[in-house]
Amino acid sequence: MTKLLTVCRGPILAAATDIQKAETISALLIRPIGILPREPGDQIRPFAIGLFDEIRTLMKPEVTATILRRAVAAFVHSKRYYCASAQLDSMRHDIEGAPLEPLTDEDRMTAQTRFLALKLKTNGVNDKSTLSPPSIPAATPAITKSEQIRAALLGRGRSQRSRSSAS
Fold first, then answer.
1. For the domain 16-124+137-166, what is the CATH superfamily, name and number?
2. Domain boundary assignment for the chain
3. pLDDT tens readout for residues 130-152
4. CA separation for the pair 79, 44 (Å, rounded)
5. Which letter does DSSP use for residue 1 in this model?
6. Distance between CA 38 and CA 78 in Å, rounded?
7. How far is Cα 101 from Cα 92, in angstroms, rounded to an integer?
């Protein structure tokens, strides 16, 4: 295992943007689920593997799986979610938020790599050589093409909003 990120220590707490994403997910469901943060300062908890299938059973009848999948993806592909998943003591949680099992070393390293990539993108660094610091082994899976597209679209939406508010 490599060095853990120093910025990802202790509980990772939800910010206003995380709450918006959680509320979007909740609005698509027939009942709230306990794993999602309800207010800023609530802890962000990594999802159990396969949790989306459980969440999907709670969809409102007029909601499609694609819409729900996109809403959940926006939440789980965020810097704070990756940071929460990258910690040494990170645990996966069930739909109500109860801890189930620890994340594997491989999953924590993947989360750390994705966190670093999003952090660099947010800071405007486009030098791909900085995505793989020497402490991360070469065998660590790279960010998938769809995740790169998603991150670019999320970033584009923010920059367009800031430009339109400046006008």
1. ProQ/FinO domain (1.10.1710.10)
2. 16-124+137-166
3. 444 434 444 445 677 677 777 77
4. 11
5. -
6. 17
7. 5
